[in-house]
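Supplementary Methods, section 5.1.

A reviewer requested that the exact input to the structure prediction be made available. We therefore reproduce it here, unchanged from the version used in the analyses.
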Amino acid sequence: MSGFREAVLASGTGLGGWSGLNFGIGGGIGGGIGGSHSGSLPAPFDAPDKRRLVGPQGSHPLAAIALEELVARSSDGLEGEITIQEPVRIGEALSGHLVVTARRDFNARSATMRLVGALISEQQRSREERDSQGKVIRSEHWVEISGSLFEQLPFSEPALPTTLAAGQKFEADFTLPAPRLGPVTAHMGSAILAWALDAKWDIQMRGDEHVAALVKVAQNIDYLRSGAVTLEQGALFDAWQVGDASIAVKPLPPIVAGSEIEVTVNWPSAGSGRGGRLELQADVKAPNGISNLVLFSVPVDPAAFRGGTTIRVPIPVDAPATLNDKGVVVGYRIRALVDRQFRSDLAVERALAVM
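The structure derived from this sequence is encoded token-by-token as follows.
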């Protein structure tokens, strides 16, 4: 079974040989408009090289960037790190330790620790050039990654010193509130919801200094079951009926990423065909969305569906949690199909919540 991000990469056109150069009509490399492209990410999620933030039409360059690559640990003037005690769940506490050592003297106007949330997503871009008659003579299409902050929550504690001398060390423990209503940290292949804890020194007439750490905010099962998260019908049920077919799963959802489930399909009217299969599929609704992403597939004799069959289905360890927040949606479903010659396939499916 492939991982979630690996499946997203495979679903696109690929990034092999892509350098960010334009491809124009009849012009090959360099035949497009305006040279190379690059994306843009907000601090402190701007560690990846900008050349990695673009890809050819139909690709998913964001899937090639891991969550851990987004945040640079510290700026040039500081040496240090923020360590986080995991797990961090929605509505609970965020505890850890900050340690910094100044590499040079500086006197900041302010120094604050803040929790920062960002939505990073792929965008489909295009551009064309026309002649004097309005005819398109060159065009280009590409995918570009950009991001924006949806949360910047400052904390008064721990109090950070505004003045540090070269070689001076400062450290402190902290316990802060985790995001009260989320969203969870999620890498969806073509979009990311990310959180970071950022200790920032605002320095006049010079670049700011900071120490930052990625915060992986996990789903809180009580919050999920409260109804605060919009889910497809049946996503939290053990069994779901579709006509005369039933699809049951064990254990009871939500299912933890990286685990396995037992799927039992009983479908008396499955009929006959050239073959059948059981699949775990995902959909990501985002600016450059992904539909019908197959994460697991196994052939099944249609007769087994008719008589009832149980199959173990793995959930990828990097599968993002089921979510509907900040304009992005992740959903999962178990789908049973019968392939019929010269006719459309038969299919029954049910939603599945993952956390």
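The longest helix spans residues 4-11. These observations are discussed further in the main text.
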